[in-house]
Write a structure and sequence with these properties.
The structure is a homodimer.
Chain A (H helix, E strand, L loop, with lengths): L33 H10 L5 E2 H10 L10 H13 L3 E6 L7 E6 L1 H11 L7 E3 L1 H7 L6 H28 L7 H34 L9
Antiparallel strand pairs in A: 1-3, 2-3
Helix pairs in contact in A: 1-3, 2-3, 5-6, 6-7
The structure holds a DNA duplex.
DNA sequence: CGTTGCATGTAAGGTGTTACATGATTAC
DNA sequence: GTAATCATGTAACACCTTACATGCAACG
């Protein structure tokens, strides 16, 4: 009962639902998709980042415990945040490269972000697409099932390597202690996940062996 | 680089994209949202289930390692599956209760499902909304941060209890060995998650103590 | 000379959610 | 009497993705 429900939207009251805040007081954080808060959060660490920078940052940090939005999505959210007054932007001239638009969090943005942090966290979302296939194992060829799980293991390996890299790179910096904490947590979690995958493979093999007596597989 | 990308859609070729299969040979599984396969998968275990039944089933199994679709969504997917010929339905009369429409997987449905199982699993999706808040800990009050994590722990506790219940209930049944395997896996994973949350709380406390010297919190 | 990185954005549309409507029966 | 369970469905729409367009600079 915990996993599904969502980021409570503003009650649907038929009016075209104006996105601009109805008054100046930012008391409670207005309903925004988590992506917007995540992008704003990235800008709370470093100023003058471009959409392109933010995408790279997201890939190098958010990705390990949340997920990384599409680049085009980041640009869209940035424009929304600017409309709300949560970020300001300016064009940074680069003589060697193309000019870029860099963003900076505003006072109002910091306050809104802090207010959002005080709201109750949405439930964790886990969609384990490999497990879903294992769950339907009675319809699959044991060897192919195994291959799917091993493919998943390879992905975890890669993700873990990346997360470890990120954890090392993040070391030492004062202001980044919380992201560090989370990155280390992500590493530990991926390690445990890999252990579980190992057990899963063993279970799978046992199951395949035990039913190989009257093996009546089509195809 | 693994977490984001998605269920590769059929290449966008401008034509209105007919959903009905273009010919009779079901060779490759047509692109369908995972939810559709999950619903079809539920029907591969038991026949003559109503939309209502399926929702309950999803809540009692899928939920622990995937997620549980909204009831209205299940009804929509069932109609799509029937249009595709993957399920058939009939009205089951009930004299005590309202009549209901029950569904059954067809031959074509089983084959399409098996074909889908042979496709490469989509990457695992994890959106850890509590960790996202911890990640932004420098903007939060330590006590409130702790409360958020404890709230998450309570949710995990509840989910774990439910998963354990499901694991017990599923025991013994021949045809359900794979779902059992997955449910047990989900239980183990939730247990590990709870351990990690404990560690996280300890880390958080350490961090809060170490920085309580020049505590300069706004508000 | 093709690919990769930098850099931004539009358009289309799929996936899934909430809100709500409806209505009967059983349980407290 | 009122809440919960059974049972199905429509409408609106938020969220996010892919495909694609554009263009320059550097690298091999």
């Amino acid at each position: 009962m915990a996993q599904t429900q969502a980021r409570d939207k503003t009650p649907r009251d038929k009016t075209p639902r104006d996105k601009t805040p109805r008054d100046k007081t930012p008391a409670a954080a207005p309903a925004l998709p988590t992506t917007a808060w995540a992008v704003l959060g990235l800008l709370s660490f470093e100023r003058d980042l471009s959409g392109y920078d933010l995408k790279k940052w997201a890939d190098a940090s958010l990705r390990f415990f949340y997920w990384s939005p599409a680049a085009s999505h980041i640009y869209t959210e940035l424009r929304r945040l600017e409309r709300l007054g949560y970020v300001s932007s300016r064009v940074a001239r680069q003589d060697d490269l193309r000019n870029k638009r860099v963003y900076r969090i505003t006072r109002a943005g910091s306050e809104a972000l802090a207010a959002w942090l005080r709201t109750e966290p949405e439930p964790t979302i886990v969609k384990h697409n490999t497990l879903l296939r294992v769950w339907l194992g009675h319809l699959a060829d044991p060897a192919e099932l195994r291959a799917a799980v091993e493919h998943h293991r390879a992905e975890l390996d890669e993700l873990l390597a990346d997360a470890r890299g990120a954890a090392e790179r993040a070391e030492g910096d004062e202001a980044w202690r919380y992201p560090q904490l989370v990155t280390r947590w992500a590493v530990r979690r991926l390690e445990l996940d890999l252990e579980l995958v190992g057990e899963l493979l063993a279970d799978l093999d046992r199951l395949a062996r035990s039913s190989s007596g009257r093996r009546r597989r089509s195809r």
